[in-house]
């Protein structure tokens, strides 16, 4: 394969359920054959919300190989539909009636219309909002991570895993993430408690944004499943063969992101940057912060300074790549919140007597500095 490699997206539009099986039983085997034959260098499947209208197959290949790659994947998808029933094709009105409220619950920001007819297969360049990943280098790290974790995704889509439920799978991922960085740098910034701060930050932000009523039922559910949760946490300290590739992918991506941060070739957006990118009305920063995040309003506070430590910044990007893989595996925003809450509470209980990570000593930063999140 020559040096003209580029990334392309083949989209399979299907307005109903069954996308798990389409990915697992049709598209993944076809991709494996294309990889083995050398037509595809790297690839990853993706969907942006559980009931979204399409599945994306993102492939790195050459322009010469692209027609054959597209046809092989298209044939695999159409053959699967022929064997398991035609793809669901809803009118725009029917789609909106069925899924508008679902999309809101899933925190979907992309427009629901125009709606491409079900059964359509399209090909085009891969579109990534690279600024959301900190620039081209961050986007490249994201693609590499998703490529490296396709076997983990396939295992999550396996019917046996789905019989157990998605939440135990996602908790395994989160606990593997929590333990993945030990030994990769200064202990206080690579420890499990320091990773727990990321989960705590995301859970508190979600509760603050209109979901506080979920805290009590989540705690009740956590206590009911305490035995299972504790076992999953302990098992993640020494991952089994199924999770070793995930741990390796976390560590590889972390090293790559840390190098880019050191070289200043990657800059993650701040909280205010994200608001601007999503077209949200500018609000005073204090109005967007939970009580737990209040320190972020002062760029000189310990919390604000800690949020800018490179290890925290690197994991902030990486944990969001894991969240996207959860979505592709069929996770909902509610599942992600529960996983964040359980992971943070489990780590808090395991390290109850250990002080939280403090920022490194450094000169006071300019008051004009913008803050990030953990």
From TrEMBL:
InterPro entries: Thiopep_bacteriocin_synth_dom. Residues 7-345 form the Thiopeptide-type bacteriocin biosynthesis domain. It holds the Pfam family Lant_dehydr_C. It comes from the Bacteria. This is Thiopeptide-type bacteriocin biosynthesis domain-containing protein. It comes from Deinococcus indicus.
């Amino acid at each position: 394969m020559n040096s003209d490699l580029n990334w392309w997206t083949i989209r399979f539009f299907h307005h109903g359920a069954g996308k798990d099986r389409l990915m697992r039983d049709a598209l993944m085997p076809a991709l494996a054959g294309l990889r083995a034959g050398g037509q595809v260098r790297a690839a990853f499947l993706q969907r942006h919300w559980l009931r979204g209208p399409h599945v994306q197959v993102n492939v790195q290949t050459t322009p010469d190989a692209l027609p054959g790659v597209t046809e092989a994947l298209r044939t695999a998808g159409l053959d699967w539909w022929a064997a398991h029933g035609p793809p669901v094709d809803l009118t725009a009105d029917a789609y909106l009636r069925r899924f508008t409220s679902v999309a809101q619950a899933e925190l979907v920001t992309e427009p629901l219309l125009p709606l491409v007819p079900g059964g359509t297969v399209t090909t085009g360049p891969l579109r990534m909002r690279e600024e959301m990943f900190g620039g081209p280098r961050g986007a490249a790290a994201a693609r590499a991570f998703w490529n490296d974790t396709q076997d983990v995704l396939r295992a999550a889509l396996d019917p046996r895993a789905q019989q157990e439920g998605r939440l135990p799978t996602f908790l395994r991922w989160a606990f593997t993430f929590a333990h993945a960085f030990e030994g990769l740098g200064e202990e206080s910034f690579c420890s499990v408690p320091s990773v727990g701060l990321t989960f705590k930050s995301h859970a508190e932000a979600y509760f603050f944004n209109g979901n506080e009523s979920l805290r009590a039922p989540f705690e009740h559910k956590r206590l009911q499943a305490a035995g299972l949760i504790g076992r999953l946490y302990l098992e993640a300290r020494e991952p089994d063969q199924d999770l070793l590739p995930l741990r390796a992918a976390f560590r590889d991506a972390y090293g790559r992101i840390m190098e880019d941060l050191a070289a200043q070739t990657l800059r993650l957006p701040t909280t205010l940057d994200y608001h601007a990118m999503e077209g949200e009305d500018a609000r005073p920063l204090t109005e967007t912060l939970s009580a737990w995040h209040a320190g972020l309003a002062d760029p000189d506070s310990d919390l604000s300074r800690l949020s800018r430590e490179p290890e925290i910044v690197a994991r902030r990007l990486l944990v969001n790549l894991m969240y996207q893989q959860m979505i592709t595996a069929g996770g909902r925003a509610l599942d992600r919140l529960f996983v964040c809450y359980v992971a943070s509470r489990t780590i808090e209980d395991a390290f109850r007597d250990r002080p939280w990570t403090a920022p490194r000593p450094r000169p006071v930063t300019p008051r004009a500095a913008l803050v990030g999140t953990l």
